[in-house]
Amino acid sequence: MTALRTGLAALAATTALATGALACEITLRSSDTHPEGYPTVAAVEYMGDLLEERSGGRLCIEVYHSAQLGQEADTIEQTQLGVIDMNRVSLGPFNNIIEETKVFSLPFIFRSTEHMHAVVDGEIGDEVLAAFGHHNLVGLAYFDGGSRSFYNSERPIRSIEDMAGLSFRVMQSDVFVDMVDALGANATPMPFGEVYSAIQTGVIDGAENNWPSYESTGHFEVAGYYTLNQHLMVPEVLVMSQASWNRLSAEDQGLIRQAARDAVPHMRELWAAREAASEEIVRAAGVEVIEEIDKTPFIEAMAPVYERHVTSDALRDLVARIQAVE
Ligand code: GTR
């Protein structure tokens, strides 16, 4: 055993020497629920490459993909505690913890991808990132999460009336529970990793997500009706644990912030390509995609969700400013 270890250590040393790389002094452990190759995972790996290069090999990121470190809600807690250094998550599971994140998770708040980019790239985006600072987290960057639509195993949804009686999994956020209720369906908050078998065994009828997640999880195999109603466009976020952050020098903190920012344009390219590829895979598999859908009744039904969640002057102000962004 000892001989084996010595052998391995020697091998590692040779490899490092051979590539001319210095050993990483600090390796940040980063969590992601998605599998290798998914745009969010690839973007954080790309950020890690930038960081390694710019720090002369001192600062590294190791991405633990495929929920190896746990489901999102749990990994958020672990990140707040400093057990996990970095985390790429949807904003949805932050809604019940950080009030400001709700405004980007409201149904139909963004008019288009361009509108969403203008908002998150601007001062409103910075303000919401800053809010993480009050919760033992450091907000680093926003990634794309496409638009989310409903899918189910029972029937094609062609109008809001078709939602009645169906049960849908949502992310663990009260905003999404109220959203599904307001559409006349039943909401079941559940971790992402449990959705496939829950649909397969009939515990729920379906869920809602973007093209890449619908495809990569295989949910399309068990829920073959996908309605492009596009009720949500929740950005994803890359955060660091405040505890891990505090251990770094100001210079290293600066390198990390910059590398995160510089990964964003690359992530957006990866995202657009994957959206198209996933759509093709799903369509080729024979999923019934319902494209002709009047969104107006869906939008109108969301009034109580806004009333229930946009409850303070600060949140009302944020919503008004988002809507005013061109
Ligand atoms: C995906 C998102 C994940 C996770 C998942 C979910 O689109 O990228 O971070 O939030 O949805 O529905 O739980």
Structure in words:
This protein is an alpha/beta fold. The chain has two domains: about 1-145 and about 235-275, D-Maltodextrin-Binding Protein, domain 2 (3-Layer(aba) Sandwich), CATH 3.40.190; about 150-235 and about 285-325, D-Maltodextrin-Binding Protein, domain 2, CATH 3.40.190. It contains 14 helices and eleven strands. Strands 2-1-3-10-4 form a five-stranded mixed beta sheet, sandwiched between helices. The chain has a four-stranded mixed beta sheet with strand order 8-5-9-11. The chain has a two-stranded parallel sheet with strand order 6-7. Strand 6, helix 6 and strand 7 form a beta-alpha-beta unit. Helix 2 (about 40-55) runs antiparallel to helix 11 (about 250-285). The protein is globular. Mean pLDDT is about 95; it is low at about 1-20. Bound molecules: beta-D-galactopyranuronic acid. The site of beta-D-galactopyranuronic acid has 12 residues, from strand 3. Beta-D-galactopyranuronic acid binds next to strand 3.
